[in-house]
Write a structure and sequence with these properties.
Elements: E1 2-8, E2 11-16, E3 27-35, H1 38-46, E4 55-56, E5 60-68, E6 81-84, E7 87-88, H2 94-97, E8 108-109, E9 121-124, H3 126-130, E10 134-136, H4 143-146, H5 149-162, E11 169-173, H6 177-188, E12 193-198, H7 202-207, E13 214-217, H8 223-231, E14 237-242, H9 247-256, E15 257-265, H10 280-286, E16 289-292, H11 298-310, H12 315-318, E17 319-324, H13 330-337, E18 342-346
Parallel strand pairs: 11-12, 11-14, 12-13, 14-15, 15-16, 17-18
Antiparallel strand pairs: 1-2, 1-4, 3-5, 3-9, 3-18, 5-6, 6-10, 7-8
Helix pairs in contact: 5-6, 5-11
Length: about 350
């Protein structure tokens, strides 16, 4: 079969690899769509300590089961179209016992510890199959749209802490696909106002196509903070989400947050520079709650699958480019240039 094999920094080679051979408990998917994640781009550009090459990347995928050696109790079968909850926790560490399997101390993850979806076929580990990690698609929703279930589930995990409702005004830093997903969720949860903040460019302009109240350009002189305060009558935003890898956004979030506001640091910072110099007096005097989130729990993923199939989630506006496997690295260039939202690879093309 054809697969796009990550062979090291700045090297992904599309070549023939042996067809997967199933062991007991495993299933084989024919991949129909695999969306490209920012973490794939970072791995390609800079390498990743937890992903030794060679490895087939791609963890946002949808496909059809074409072969199965799953146990009898598993409720997926050949012919089912499925998406995958990619976390494989140990089940025994303290976070797992507390139900926080997403932060399992020894978790294994599809496309990190096992080959992923940038290939014609993907072998799903028995541990994931037996745990119910494959979720059936129960609608005719296109596979590229269903492949958004994984990042949407991660955002839903964050929103579980934020408790956004009808009284809230929400600001989202970052107009990439994850920032847009956060804005969509905030609106679906009833937020009164939703503002997008990002550096000037095509992505910020494109954010206006979604259900947001204002797109605010981030500037070096800090005028964006003044604009948010103007838009909120001086009160600031009750919820602020940083969906980008910017320390300055994390600093700005504290400044534009309202009294008793909630801040979610969703986007991590580069490991080479992982700190932000916050004015903690603002946390103190405004009684701000700051939280972070990582990955997703199974319940978050299941909620994402249901939401995307409901028709209320504008997946068609998020997936902006479809690429064949042979041209998959073009997705990284599109992302670097900010000329796309979510590129997606279809190995059948």
């Amino acid at each position: 079969m054809k697969a796009a094999v990550y062979e090291g920094q700045e090297s992904i080679v599309v070549r023939d690899v042996p067809d997967p051979i199933l062991d007991d408990g495993e299933v084989l998917l024919k991949i129909e769509a695999c969306c490209v994640c920012g973490s794939d781009r970072r791995t390609y550009r800079h390498g990743h300590a937890s992903i030794p090459p060679p490895r087939v990347l791609g963890h946002e995928f949808c496909g059809t089961i074409v072969e199965s050696r799953a146990a009898e109790h598993v409720d997926v079968k050949v012919g089912d179209r499925v998406v995958m909850y990619i976390v494989m926790p140990c089940g025994t560490c303290r976070p797992c016992k507390e139900g926080k399997v997403n932060i399992c101390l020894t978790r294994r993850t599809m496309a990190y510890h096992f080959d992923g979806g940038y290939a014609e076929y993907a072998k799903i580990p028995a541990v994931a199959v037996s745990a119910g990690g494959l979720v059936k698609v129960e609608s005719d929703t296109p596979s590229p749209h269903m492949a958004l279930s994984e990042p949407t589930g991660c955002a839903i995990n964050a929103h579980g802490r934020l408790k956004i409702g009808l009284k809230d005004t929400v600001a989202v830093f970052g107009a990439g696909p994850v920032g847009i997903i956060h804005a969509i969720l905030a609106r679906l949860q009833g937020a009164q106002k939703v503002f997008m903040l990002a550096h000037p460019g095509q992505r910020l302009e494109g954010a206006a196509a979604f259900d947001v109240d204002a797109c605010v350009a981030v500037t070096d002189d800090g005028a964006h903070k003044e604009e948010i305060m103007r838009l909120t009558g001086g009160a600031g935003c009750s919820v602020v989400i940083t969906a980008c890898n910017s320390a300055q956004a994390q600093v700005d979030a504290v400044e534009i947050a309202a009294r008793s506001g909630r801040i979610e640091y969703f986007g991590g910072l580069p490991k080479s520079s992982p700190t932000a110099a916050l004015n903690t007096n603002l946390l103190h005097y405004k009684e701000i709650t700051v939280t972070g989130s990582f990955s997703e729990k199974m319940s978050d993923f299941q909620a994402a699958v249901a939401l995307i199939q409901s028709g209320r989630f504008p997946a068609d506006k998020l997936v902006t480019h479809m690429l064949p496997l042979a041209r998959m690295t073009e997705a990284f260039d599109l992302m670097d240039a900010g000329t796309c939202l979510k590129p997606c690879v279809d190995p059948r093309l």
